[in-house]
Amino acid sequence: MIEAANFFKLFLNHHCERIAIENPIMHCYAKRIIGVEQTQIIQPFQFGHPESKATCLWLKGLPLLRHTEVLRLKPGERWQNQSPSGNNKLGGKAAELRAKTYQGIANAMAEQWGN
């Protein structure tokens, strides 16, 4: 974790005009090493996908990502990727699938930051 947090800091502190780093919510010890909180937390359901997956963005020289199509749950409903307990249905075995960026989020990034 220490090595990964220091590697993350290299990107965060890189000298360039614009930076957008996407990462899951971090462990408190990693946050201490990095030294700054995320700029924004987004969810797939804010970009038209009926799933939940809190995703942090660290931004430099870029505006906050605007939601494009916010979906809402009715009382008693769950997002498509949630089990009855609220955990991700894919579990630990499918980490590669869970790590993929949702197309609606990628489209919003390209449209809003693509200049």
Structural class: alpha+beta
Tally of extended strands? 3
Based on CA atoms alone, the radius of gyration comes out at 15 Å
Largest sheet: 3 strands, antiparallel
Fraction of residues in H or I helices: 25-40%
- Global shape: globular
Residue fraction in strands: 5-15%
Order of helices and strands: HEHEEHH
Q: Whole-number average pLDDT?
A: 89
Terminal Cα span? 34 Å
Q: How many helices does DSSP assign?
A: 4
Arrangement of strands in the largest sheet:
1-3-2
**Oligomer kind:** single chain
Low-confidence stretches: none
Model description:
This protein is an alpha+beta fold and 115 residues long. Helix content is 29%, strand content 13%. It has four helices and three strands, in the order H-E-H-E-E-H-H. It has a three-stranded antiparallel sheet, with no helix packed on it. The radius of gyration is 15 Å and the shape is globular.
